[in-house]
Structure formats: structure tokens, C-alpha cells
Amino acid sequence: MHNLPRREFIGQGSAALAALALFHSQLAHAFPSRAGETVIPWVDQPAPNPVPAVIQTQLVWEDMDSWVTPNEKFFSIAHFDRPTIDANAWKLEIDGLVKKPLSLSLTDLKARPRQEAVFTVECSGNHGFPFFTGGIGNARWAGTPLAAILEEAGVKEDGIEVVFWGTDVGDIVLKDDFRDVKMHQNFARSMSLADAMSPNNILCYEMNGVALPAPNGFPVRLIAPGWYGIANVKWLKRIEIRNTRFMSLLMGRNYVTIREEEHNGETVWAETSVGRSLVKSAPARVTRNDAGYRISGAAWGAPIAKVEVRIDDGQWLEATIDHDEEAEFAWVIWYLDWKGPTPGEHSVTSRAVTTKGQVQPAMDDPVIAKKHTYWESNGQITRRISIA
Asked: What are phi and psi of 18, to 5 degrees?
């Protein structure tokens, strides 16, 4: 309720609170839960978070009980500072190689056609560190289409790259044998004009029915369904069109995946900038009630055809996908009833299979084993559980 006038709040507040209460009540039923079940905590809990100023809030997998992640449980990452922005004074500039530069207020954006997207956002570093296993969440985002604004601004013929600048700022030091540069720089990421013009992209000002929370990009952020979190720039201040590819700190030097690849019997080192999401799944929790044990989890990153679960070194078993809640860019929830587990410690592994037949890679698959950076860690996830 940022900067909501008192009269408007009195007139609309009750209805808004009622709608929000209804929304949260609906969340409680959007998960394949069973009556009377209790959650058994995983044995392998993540290590303590050593960078709480950078990573605020993570999904606790055992607590996952809804298809949509409530705002207060949604992860948040800041690479620089966490800006405090006055929504009344805020403007979004669209400039660079455009025929008609624009300056749009939050009111201007809200007056434009509204578009919603349910999208699971994952940080590309999720599961790349022992302390970072909850950098993911699914939300209902709302805003206005980006493409229409770029069309109105009129991208010039030589414009090929769209740069999204955030309000967050920090000092960057680039030092090697040839350079010693210190830059006071805003967060920035880019994508090609063709990618930016996707009808799925929105300039988002709402999350799960309320204004964007400050940790998640208030007042406006980019939501680019199908892309890793780093591309979904928060705290937007400017959109710039350029005629060359843009290589910022967070595109050309960081958030770069380095892999060994084999080509004609030789090793080729490939460096690629993190971009679109990769197929992935994770066991979320094990529950128990009078009917027995159940393993549930989520799969995301691509259209999912099926999810399989392996207990210890057993065979892969196909899980049931819950089809009550689905959206093109949202995770799917799955579960597997576990018949008669023996007492003791067990391992639980999941793998997702896309509609195109792509299988989430095992940890010893070359695409994972020969990856030398922690980004894009979409290997199969194994959790450990103790059965009494």
C-alpha cells in the first residue's frame, strides 16, 4: 500500500484486504496435501547463509504448501544496494536509439493495458552453493506489456540490444595486468531486441495481488518468463536501446558459465552468459499420515512431460503431476506415495523430463561434471531423510 491516499484506502481498503485474504485462503488448497499429514525434516539441511545482506529470504522446501509462493516467503537477492524509491517521484526512461524517448510514471504504466503472468523465478546460482538451495519462487505477476512501449518509442533500424538499468548501484573494480578501473555503476542486464519484444515480457508493478514488495523490485521490475532471475531486473529506472551487444559486469564477467566441451577429440572451453532457464526439479518434502509416506516436489524450467523419483539405488518411479494448478512458465507440483519404507536413512532423487524428451542431467553427466562455475546448476537433486 505504498503512497496510497487515506481517502482511497478508506474507500477501497476493506475490499482489498478481503481480496487478499481470499487469495491466501486459495493458496492453502493449491497443493496435493493429505489430511492429518506431518512433515519429516530432511537430514541434509543447508549450511547457514554467510551473506544475508545479499540473499534475503529463501524458500524452505519442507514448508512448501502452495503452488504460489507468498510474498513474505519469496527469495530476494541484491547485487549492490537495496534502494528506497519514492513511487510518486519515480520515472521510467526509455531512450537510446529510439525515435520518441519516453518518460513514464507509475500511474502512466498502470493506465496501460494490464497483463498477468504466473512465472517461477529461479536464481541461476540456486543449488550452486551449499547454503543456497531456496533461491526460487512462483508468483502471479502483473503489469503492462513491454513490447507495446518499445513500439511506441520506435526503435531505430540500427537498434539491436535492449539494456535494462536498475536503480541499485555499487562500486565495481576491474583490475588485471592491463586495467585498473573503479566504476560506480548501476545494475544492468540486456537482451536482444527480438527477445525483449516477446509478448510474454511485462513491466511488472504487482506481485500476488499487491504492489511489488521492496525486496522484489518496487515500484517496477522486468518480468521475462522463461529466463533466470538475473535477467528479471528489479528496481527499474531506465530502458536503453543500443546498436552493439552489451557486456556488463553481470553479463560478460560474472554470471558466465564455463564448461569443458569435447569437439573432434579436443577439449574446448566454452563461456556463455546466463540466460534462459534450464529444466530442473527438486524433492520438496516427505510427509506421513495414517495412509503412509508421500514424497512431493516441484519441476520447472521447461514444459514438463513427467517427473521420476528414485529412492536410494532403486528404479526410477514415475510421480503423479498435480494438474489442478498449471501455467506455461510456472512450476508443476508432483508427488509419489512411498510404500513401506524401511527404518533408517534413505536418499531421494528426482529428475524432470520435458515434452521434447530432454532429461534433467545427473550430477555425473558431462554437462554438469565439466561445468566449472556454480551458475545454471540444474543437475539432479538428492535429499536425505531418516525414517523412524
From this structure: -65, -40
User: For position 373, what pLDDT does the model report?
Assistant: 94
Which of 45-54, 319-328, 370-379 has the weakest average pLDDT? 319-328
Q: Tell me how far apart the alpha carbons of residues 216 and 51 are, in angstroms, rounded to a whole number.
A: 17
pLDDT at 256: 95
3-state secondary structure of 122: strand
Tell me which H or E stretch contains 195: helix 193-196
What is the DSSP secondary-structure string of 3-58?
A: T--HHHHHHHHHHHHHHHHHHHHHHTTSS---TT-EEEPPSSPPPP-S-TTTEE--
368's enclosing H/E stretch is: helix 366-369
In the chain, the domains with their CATH numbers are: 280-387 (2.60.40.650)
Q: What cell does 96 get?
A: 537510446
Residue tagged 524458500 (cell numbers):
59
Distance between CA atoms of 28 and 261, rounded to whole angstroms?
A: 45
C-beta atoms surrounding 3 within 10 Å? 11
Percent of the chain with pLDDT over 70: 92
Task: Give the mean model confidence (pLDDT) for residues 36-65.
Answer: 95
Distance CA 31, CA 219 (A): 30
Identify which of 383, 388, 365, 387 has the alpha carbon closest to the alpha carbon of residue 309: 383
Count of beta carbons in the 10 Å neighbourhood of residue 295: 23
Q: For residue 215, what are the contacts with CB-CB under 8 A and spacing of at least 6?
A: 56, 57, 74, 76, 78, 82
C-alpha cell at 17: 484486504
pLDDT per residue as tens digits for the range 218-243: 999 999 999 999 999 999 999 999 99
- Cα distances from 115 to residues 70, 121, 141, in angstroms, run 20, 17, 8
The CA distance from 106 to 380, in Å, is 42
* Interior/surface letters 227-264, b for 16+ CB within 10 angstroms, e for the rest: bbbbbbbbbbbbbbbbeeebebbbbeeebebebeeeee
Q: How far is CA 366 from the centre of its chain?
A: 25
**DSSP designation for 235:** S
- The C-alpha cell at 191 is 537482451
